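Sharing a chain and its predicted structure for anyone who wants a worked example. Both blocks are below, sequence first, tokens second.
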Amino acid sequence: MTSLDLTGRTALVTGAAQGLGEGMARALSAAGATVVVADVQDELGGKVAESVGGHFVHLDVTDESSWEAAISAAVEQAGGLDVVVNNAGVEISDLIMNVDPDDVMKMLTVNVLGTTLGIKHAFRAMGPGGAAGHAEGGGVVINIASVAATIAFPAISAYSATKSAVDRLTRVAAMESGKLGLGIRVNCVYPGLVPTEMGAGLANDMARLGLFGSAEEAVGAVVELTPSGRLGAVEDMADAVVFLASDAARFVNGIGLPVDGGMGM
């Protein structure tokens, strides 16, 4: 059986200063990878990078020049690039009848444009002759979607739309990589609800909008919809990323992997 050992590989994780991204960075490091923490939160990101013995690069995922600088710095500091995890994202809850155009644009910009630019610059760096140093190409891109892309839950319409877009981006990118001979696998993960700061904020929003009597009631509704009978854990999502980054997933390409306890089935 092929192991999940990532020794000798370098992984860049966006939005890795906290939450799921931090957990993914720690799991990739534990599997042997050299990790590059990429985030706009310099102080927090630097601490995470230091704690995993990796590197930190400042990255605004919505900005082209920021991507160019971050990829260049990552390759220079870590000596290469083999895995890019497009995790950075934002979620803003509201009822469709009250939705704020600025909130929608922010989610589109971070979740969709940010992921698109991440794939673009991963392809350029890890493709044949790219900055990562793979003469014949090769590498892995893992995009973080959401169970919100597969279910109809109230007050997250725009967020759900952006995460559905991440799924489509993933599949088209995998096909383009194959057609162009880049040798880069592209997959995405659909995390279920995890009690991170973002997850807790979502539950509080459900209560604030009057959809549930309390945040606890909203969480209970999610658990009730989940055959596994619990919320997800950061480790659940991080382990899925390690799997997709590893040779154990060498023939897994262009898919969305639900890690949601069955909620989105």
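Comments welcome. The two ends are 28 Å apart (CA to CA).
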